[in-house]
Design a protein that fits this description.
Elements (H helix, E strand, L loop, with lengths): L5 E2 L14 E5 L4 H12 L6 E6 L7 E4 L2 E4 L1 E2 L10 E4 L3 H13 L3 E4 L15 H4 L5
Protein backbone atom coordinates (compact mmCIF):
# COMPACT_ATOMS: atom_id res chain seq x y z
CA UNK A 1 0.00 0.00 0.00
CA UNK A 2 1.41 3.41 -0.95
CA UNK A 3 0.62 6.18 1.48
CA UNK A 4 0.75 9.67 0.04
CA UNK A 5 0.82 12.71 2.24
CA UNK A 6 2.48 15.91 3.19
CA UNK A 7 3.79 17.80 6.18
CA UNK A 8 1.83 20.60 7.76
CA UNK A 9 4.37 22.52 9.79
CA UNK A 10 4.99 26.15 8.83
CA UNK A 11 8.29 26.37 10.74
CA UNK A 12 9.67 22.96 9.85
CA UNK A 13 13.24 24.23 9.59
CA UNK A 14 13.01 25.52 13.15
CA UNK A 15 11.45 22.31 14.47
CA UNK A 16 13.69 19.80 16.15
CA UNK A 17 12.33 16.29 16.53
CA UNK A 18 13.84 14.18 19.30
CA UNK A 19 15.62 10.90 18.61
CA UNK A 20 12.95 9.11 20.67
CA UNK A 21 9.77 11.02 19.78
CA UNK A 22 6.28 10.80 21.15
CA UNK A 23 4.23 9.85 18.09
CA UNK A 24 0.48 10.37 17.82
CA UNK A 25 -1.57 8.67 15.13
CA UNK A 26 -4.96 10.25 14.44
CA UNK A 27 -7.08 7.60 12.76
CA UNK A 28 -5.12 4.71 14.23
CA UNK A 29 -7.94 2.18 13.79
CA UNK A 30 -8.12 2.61 10.02
CA UNK A 31 -6.13 0.79 7.36
CA UNK A 32 -3.62 3.64 6.94
CA UNK A 33 -3.22 4.00 10.70
CA UNK A 34 -2.33 0.30 10.87
CA UNK A 35 0.12 0.83 7.99
CA UNK A 36 1.77 3.72 9.86
CA UNK A 37 2.41 1.35 12.78
CA UNK A 38 3.60 -1.49 10.53
CA UNK A 39 5.98 0.86 8.68
CA UNK A 40 7.46 2.20 11.92
CA UNK A 41 8.09 -1.39 12.99
CA UNK A 42 9.59 -2.50 9.66
CA UNK A 43 11.96 0.46 9.63
CA UNK A 44 12.83 0.31 13.31
CA UNK A 45 11.60 3.86 13.78
CA UNK A 46 12.35 4.92 17.38
CA UNK A 47 9.25 5.77 19.40
CA UNK A 48 9.38 6.70 23.07
CA UNK A 49 5.62 6.65 23.37
CA UNK A 50 2.76 6.00 20.97
CA UNK A 51 -0.47 7.97 21.37
CA UNK A 52 -3.13 6.14 19.36
CA UNK A 53 -6.02 8.52 18.64
CA UNK A 54 -9.45 7.79 17.22
CA UNK A 55 -13.12 8.63 17.58
CA UNK A 56 -15.09 8.06 20.78
CA UNK A 57 -16.29 4.72 19.33
CA UNK A 58 -12.75 3.32 19.55
CA UNK A 59 -11.55 5.11 22.68
CA UNK A 60 -10.73 2.67 25.47
CA UNK A 61 -9.94 -0.22 23.14
CA UNK A 62 -6.35 -1.38 22.87
CA UNK A 63 -3.99 -1.98 19.98
CA UNK A 64 -0.74 -3.96 19.90
CA UNK A 65 2.43 -1.95 19.52
CA UNK A 66 5.81 -3.61 19.82
CA UNK A 67 4.58 -6.34 22.10
CA UNK A 68 2.51 -4.11 24.36
CA UNK A 69 -1.15 -3.20 24.53
CA UNK A 70 -1.67 0.55 24.11
CA UNK A 71 -5.05 2.09 24.92
CA UNK A 72 -6.64 4.22 22.22
CA UNK A 73 -7.51 7.75 23.32
CA UNK A 74 -10.34 9.87 21.99
CA UNK A 75 -9.04 12.57 19.65
CA UNK A 76 -9.69 16.00 21.17
CA UNK A 77 -8.26 19.50 21.38
CA UNK A 78 -5.69 18.51 24.02
CA UNK A 79 -4.49 15.29 22.38
CA UNK A 80 -1.22 16.75 21.07
CA UNK A 81 0.32 18.12 24.26
CA UNK A 82 3.83 16.64 24.49
CA UNK A 83 3.63 15.09 21.00
CA UNK A 84 6.66 15.42 18.71
CA UNK A 85 5.21 13.86 15.53
CA UNK A 86 1.52 13.62 14.63
CA UNK A 87 0.46 11.35 11.78
CA UNK A 88 -3.00 12.02 10.38
CA UNK A 89 -5.19 9.65 8.42
CA UNK A 90 -8.67 10.41 9.65
CA UNK A 91 -10.12 12.44 6.77
CA UNK A 92 -9.88 16.05 5.72
CA UNK A 93 -12.48 17.32 8.21
CA UNK A 94 -10.54 15.90 11.14
CA UNK A 95 -7.26 17.18 9.70
CA UNK A 96 -8.60 20.70 9.19
CA UNK A 97 -9.79 20.81 12.79
CA UNK A 98 -6.92 19.09 14.60
CA UNK A 99 -3.72 19.46 12.50
CA UNK A 100 -3.37 23.18 13.32
CA UNK A 101 -3.81 22.33 17.01
CA UNK A 102 -1.06 19.73 16.76
CA UNK A 103 1.27 22.26 15.09
CA UNK A 104 0.43 24.84 17.75
CA UNK A 105 1.33 22.24 20.41
CA UNK A 106 4.75 21.85 18.76
CA UNK A 107 4.32 18.67 16.70
CA UNK A 108 5.53 18.04 13.18
CA UNK A 109 2.42 16.95 11.31
CA UNK A 110 2.19 14.48 8.44
CA UNK A 111 -1.28 14.42 6.89
CA UNK A 112 -2.40 12.21 4.03
CA UNK A 113 -5.80 13.86 3.49
CA UNK A 114 -6.67 16.52 0.95
CA UNK A 115 -7.23 19.16 3.65
CA UNK A 116 -4.16 21.31 2.93
CA UNK A 117 -3.22 20.35 -0.63
CA UNK A 118 -4.00 23.76 -2.08
CA UNK A 119 -2.54 25.76 0.81
CA UNK A 120 0.54 27.61 -0.54
CA UNK A 121 2.11 27.62 2.95
CA UNK A 122 2.05 23.83 3.24
CA UNK A 123 4.66 21.83 1.33
CA UNK A 124 3.13 19.00 -0.66
CA UNK A 125 5.50 16.04 -0.54
CA UNK A 126 5.20 13.23 -3.04
CA UNK A 127 8.16 10.93 -2.30
CA UNK A 128 8.50 9.72 -5.88
CA UNK A 129 8.70 13.32 -7.14
CA UNK A 130 10.02 15.73 -4.51
CA UNK A 131 11.11 13.82 -1.41
CA UNK A 132 13.71 16.53 -0.70
CA UNK A 133 10.88 18.90 0.36
CA UNK A 134 10.57 16.85 3.53
CA UNK A 135 13.72 18.53 4.85
Amino acid sequence: MKVRGFFYCPNLMETSVKNDPVVAIAGVTGAVGAEFIATMDRRGFPVRKLKPLASSRSAGKAIDFRGQKVVIEELNERSFEGVDIALFSAGSGVSKKFAPLAVKAGAVVVDNSSAFRMDPNVPLVIPEINASRIR
